[in-house]
Design goal:
Number of helices: 13
Number of strands: 12
Largest sheet: 5 strands, mixed
Strand content: 15-25%
Radius of gyration: 21 Å
Shape: globular
Distance between the termini: 34 Å
Helix content: 25-40%
Structural class: alpha/beta
Length: 392
């Protein structure tokens, strides 16, 4: 699939945009960065530090990271301290968005028309999303933030200043996780009194299910309850008002779809979506915030039509629409503290080992705070720095 994508990109070329992903290098200086070299092959390399390339750029010293073409620098969820600014940057008002197109004017930054050069996405979808840092050449090929420095194009549009008194661990998730989950709820139209089913609770099933149970939620472990829709009907006989897919297309459940993915007869699987369509009431709503990429077989289109189900593609979350609201109304007021999600903290030197440990689910690893030389010490109540080799 990777080879096919690269051939398609090479044949079609790139679509001109207002921003180029390549950056000017700060000669004589290098930084640590995580780069992709192939499936299960990521390496910590010495890369050139980015310098101001366009007058709207901002260079950020990365202080926190959450953890493609060969050699690409990974990472789209990060925060840091401003290192250098371009001559056009006067005010940091706040994904890589232009700030001027019709979507950006509605704060739908992830749908920006002007920052993603991918002709492959344009061919497959009939349009292009915004450019994303460290998210493959399908989204523009911009170098990511799993490094000590990162170039942020159009910095006035794409950065959110945060109060210095807030610990880093409280605000890091504003770069993706919190706005994405918030958007899924808002965009799918969840209303007060609705019964909502969420598919997908993170990578470590037992721990995440136990956490959900502790929060007072009904949980279903599909490794035990094989017929998910039957179990839901036992819990909610009339069906769900809303279902939201926060799972993944990468891991098919059945032999049929495992076989089709192996033979490259489909890129994505419909199993979760089919379960949701069957589980909701007539005229129910289903939201897709999981990252689907291409095509699938065996989609239950009949149930979708006959039940009048509203199937809503939430899209890549327009982070900038929500991040200030979440910061001011939830985090600064103390209504919500996201630090419970962080299970480990490691130095950037261990980041390649971290990927392997995560694949093997070592030591209950879920969300990891990756620190750089610019990071502040851990805040009270959060994990202390450990080394991956120490985990058991």
């Amino acid at each position: 699939m990777q080879v096919a994508a690269e051939l398609a990109l090479a044949r079609k070329g790139e679509i001109p945009t207002i921003e180029e992903p390549q950056y000017k290098r700060r000669y004589g200086s290098t930084m640590k960065a995580l780069a992709w070299f192939g499936t299960t092959d990521v390496r910590l390399i010495d890369a050139a530090i980015p310098d101001i390339t366009e007058p709207d750029d901002v260079i950020v010293k990365v202080t926190e990271i959450l953890a493609l073409q060969e050699g690409d620098i990974l990472g789209h969820e990060f925060m840091g301290k401003v290192d250098r600014i371009g001559s056009n940057v006067k005010n940091l008002k706040v994904r890589i968005a232009c700030g001027k197109c019709k979507y950006c004017q509605q704060k739908l930054s992830s749908f920006c028309d002007n920052t993603n050069s991918s002709s492959l996405m344009n061919y497959m979808y009939g349009m292009r999303d915004a450019g994303f840092s460290g998210y493959s050449h399908f989204t523009g090929g911009f170098p990511g933030g799993q490094a000590e420095y990162v170039r942020v194009p159009l910095g006035e549009v794409n950065l959110l200043p945060v109060p210095a008194e807030l610990p880093d661990e409280k605000v890091l998730f504003l770069s993706d996780v919190l706005p994405t989950s918030y958007h899924a709820v808002v965009d799918t139209g969840v209303e007060e009194g609705d019964t909502v089913g969420i598919w997908g609770l993170g990578p470590i099933v037992p721990e995440r299910l136990a956490l959900a149970e502790k929060g007072g939620f009904e949980v279903i472990d599909f490794t035990k309850d094989k017929d998910v829709t039957k179990k839901i009907k036992e819990l909610v006989p009339d069906g769900l008002d809303v279902a939201i897919d926060c799972g993944t297309f990468h891991e098919p459940k059945t032999l049929l779809h495992k076989g089709m993915k192996m033979l490259m007869l489909e890129t994505d699987v419909p199993e979760i979506v089919n379960e949701m369509i069957v589980s909701v009431k007539k005229m129910g709503r289903c939201g897709l915030t999981a990252v689907y990429a291409g095509f699938t077989n065996g989609f239950n289109i009949g149930a979708l039509m006959e039940k009048g189900v509203r199937l809503i593609g939430n899209g890549q979350a327009p982070v900038q629409k929500y991040w200030k609201e979440i910061l001011e109304d939830y985090i600064q007021t103390g209504k919500f503290d996201p630090r419970f999600m962080i299970t480990h903290r490691v130095p950037i030197d261990d980041i390649a080992k971290l990927y392997a440990a995560f694949d093997k689910r070592i030591a209950g690893v879920e969300k990891v705070f990756v620190e750089t030389q610019f990071s502040d010490p851990p805040s009270e109540g959060t994990p202390q720095t450990t080394r991956v080799d120490e985990w058991k």
